[in-house]
C-alpha cells in the first residue's frame, strides 16, 4: 500500500474542470515531482490533498486512512501533511522564531520554551539562528522560504507538499532553497512537489508526473520522463522547455 493514495480525483471551479480523474500514489520516503504547463492543475492537486480545496469526487487516503470528504479532522490532517507555498506566507507581525514556534505551541501543546527550543534548533540547522528575532521582511526571499519550510517541519509532519516554492525567488536565491529540499529528501522526507525547475525535478525526484489539463499524461522515473518520454504531450512540453533553455 502506498503512503498517499489518490483515486479518481475530480475538481472543478464553476464550469472549469481542473482535475479530471487523478489517480496517483506516493510511497513513503518518496519524492514525487509534478510538472506541467501553467494551469495544468498542479497547485490545485496539492491544495486538495491538504483540504485547502474541497473535492468534487474521488478519494484521498494517507496511510490507508481516508483524508477527504466530510468528517475529516482538517487540523489533524494538516499536522500530518505540511504545505509550503510560493509566497512563503510567513506571519509578517511575528519574529522568525515565533513564526516557527507558534503552531507547535498552539496545536501540539508544547510549552513556549519547548516550542522556542525546537524552532531555534531548526533555524540553526538552516544557518539562520542569528535571524531568530528578526521579522520576515528583514530576510531575503530565500531566507524567508527556508524559514517557511522549517516552520512546516516544526510540526514534524509525515509528508510535505511544496507548491512552486522557488517561483517567487530571484534566480540567485533559488539554489539555497533547493539545497534544503535536497537535504530533506536525503533524510527520507516524503514529498510531493509542484515545480517549474526541471533540472531540480530531474535531480531530486524518485518519480516525475506530467500533468496536462487536469489529467496525468505520464509518470515515470526522471530518467524515463526526461530522456525518453512516451506520450506526445510530454514530448511537446519538454521540447518547449528545452527551447526555452530550462532543461
Ligand atoms: N480558486 C480558484 N477559483 C477559480 N479557478 C481557479 C482557482 N484556483 C485555480 N483555478 C484555475 O484552475 C486551473 C488550474 O490552476 P492551478 O493553479 O492548479 O494550475 P498550476 O498547474 O498549478 O499552474 P501554475 O504552474 O501556473 O501554478 C487554472 O485554470 C486556474 O485558473
TrEMBL record:
Pfam families for this protein: ABC_tran
Organism phylogeny: Bacteria, Bacillati, Actinomycetota, Actinomycetes, Micrococcales
Alphabetically ordered keywords of this record: Amino-acid transport, ATP-binding, Cell membrane, Membrane, Nucleotide-binding, Transport
Protein name per UniProt: Amino acid ABC transporter ATP-binding protein
Compartments where located: Cell membrane
GO molecular function terms attached to this record: ATP binding
Gene3D superfamilies registered for this protein in UniProt: P-loop containing nucleotide triphosphate hydrolases
Residues covered by the ABC transporter domain: 4-238
Membrane topology per record: Peripheral membrane protein
Main location: membrane
Source organism (scientific name): Arthrobacter burdickii
Family of this protein: Belongs to the ABC transporter superfamily.
Entry superkingdom: Bacteria
